[in-house]
Design brief:
Two copies of one chain form a homodimer. With about 150 residues, chain A is α+β, with helices and mostly antiparallel strands. The first copy, chain A, is built from seven helices and five strands, in the order αββααβαβααβα.
């Protein structure tokens, strides 16, 4: 966690992005690190945890991080939290709370609220279109015998 | 949406990944497409929407997708939904519902539940560590005058 905190502070000083970093560890060894690179790489998904997950999966050569523990300098936003679930990590430790983040100008509470809201009550208008045709993609998946489940 | 559906079906046939694709449009023109590449790129964050957002931001040269509409072949999971909010897109259209996805073996309802749960009731153990030290990263951010807010 001390390394994650140090990397988060360094990331501000170097101007790479926001004050966020994550370190992924397996069996006591660091597998990968990630720092926030949203503004420097023009990538709104380049939060520290997502960057670290991608780097760790590349290092391990797998699309799952089974047995890995994630140390992140701040409580994950819903995007990063979901990414950590998809990556199937073992445990999450965080330093700053979401409240600390909000006080520093990084408030993601609206996003936790939006994710819990019915589709027709969300801030970004969301509508279904061509459901009858879209199902063809899932039918193709069902019919495919040579596929990698995930 | 027809293009997103066709790309999702193609993605299964080509073996690149799951039956998901997204198309991002601005002013009636396609800015970028994205297909699910979780298994082919060993990246659990490479859902169609995330891949499309990253490609669109690269194409536009910005970390926001202001004015962009997203057509995704399936209702977004919480990771992708959050990514779409961070990207600040204008509207979301989806083809398959989350229920259709669950029937095809892609059930993300547990994730919507987890995101809404208090930290100490989540499936992945989540704990705070060194909060007093972590705040230094936010203090560095506050002190930094030459920074790009996002």
């Amino acid at each position: 966690m001390r390394k994650a905190i140090a990397l988060a502070t360094e990331n501000v000083v170097s101007g790479l992005g926001g004050p966020f970093a994550a370190v992924i560890v397996r069996d006591g060894e660091i597998v990968a690190i990630g720092v926030n690179q949203v503004t420097s790489t023009n990538d709104p998904t380049a939060h520290a945890e997502v960057v670290a997950i991608r780097a760790a999966c590349t290092a391990i050569g797998d699309f799952q991080l089974t047995g890995c523990v994630v140390y992140t300098s701040c409580e994950p936003c819903p995007m990063c939290l979901s990414a950590l679930y998809w990556a199937r990590c073992k445990a999450i430790f965080y330093g700053n709370s979401a409240g600390d983040a909000a006080e520093a100008g990084f408030d993601d509470s609206f996003l936790y609220e939006e994710v819990s809201r019915p589709l027709d009550e969300r801030r970004i208008p969301t509508k279904r279109l061509l459901g009858g045709e879209a199902i063809e993609s899932f039918n193709a998946w069902r019919a495919q015998t040579d596929k990698i489940e995930y």
